[in-house]
Amino acid sequence: MTEALLTASKPELLDKEGDRTLRGVLYDYFAFGRSLEACREIFANFVDLSTTQYLILIAIKNSTAEEPMGVNQVAERLYLSGAFVTNEINKLVSDGLLEKSPHPDDRRRVQLTLTQHGLSLLTRLAALQRPVNDALFGMLTRDEFKVLSQLLSRLASNADSAVRLAEHVKATLKFQEDQRALTTNSPSPRKKRRTTLRNTR
Fold it and tell me: Where in this protein does the record put region Disordered (predicted)?
């Protein structure tokens, strides 16, 4: 495969067959991702929540007294904007699933906890989640699962910067293509001179 057709350039991502292994990884990841998205929608629908509200409740359920979660912590954990998470949290508070209380160390902040209603909802949901998550990940050994957890954490932490890079490179390449198109379509200086001479005769 010629270098111009490769979809990556780092040696770690390439092999003797070019980027074939990388493409296989992505195809498998997209297939697994679609299944995860479908399961997440089923989980959220089961308890009459949006998928984001479902994720927020799960994230807060896994917080601890030593590390309580506020809006910013939830947004960071879910890789979502603070404004969007704030809106969804306010809905959950209104529905009686979450409650806000002052942070013990910083009165300017709030910490989020599940209400009894929220805990009951997640207890009901867990009966559905357990067999599905076992089916999704049960073929992995404990060591494999730990490696997967570490790798996905590293990949997720860099994903936003990759998206920003994609937008920047796309705009740069588009600009270069537009400039080349203008140069190609415009008459050459010699042709322009002949046109000017004809017009003055």
Answer: 178-201
Place of tokens 């929608």: 41
Residue 69 per-residue DSSP state: B
pLDDT tens-digit series, residues 125-152? 999 999 999 999 999 999 999 999 999 9
Co-location of 41 and 124 in the same domain:
yes
Claim to verify: residue 92 and residue 174 sit in the same structural domain: no
H/E stretch holding 4 reads none
The pLDDT confidence band at residue 173, using thresholds 50, 70 and 90, is very high
Query: Do 176 and 112 share a structural domain?
Result: no
User: Quick one: which of 34, 38, 10, 14 has its CA closest to 24?
Assistant: 14
CA distance 184 to 177: 10
Render pLDDT for 181-197 as a digit per residue (tens, 0 to 9): 888 775 555 555 555 54
The reply to whether the predicted model has a pTM over 0.70 is yes
Give residue 10's domain range.
3-140
Locus of tokens 């390449």: 173
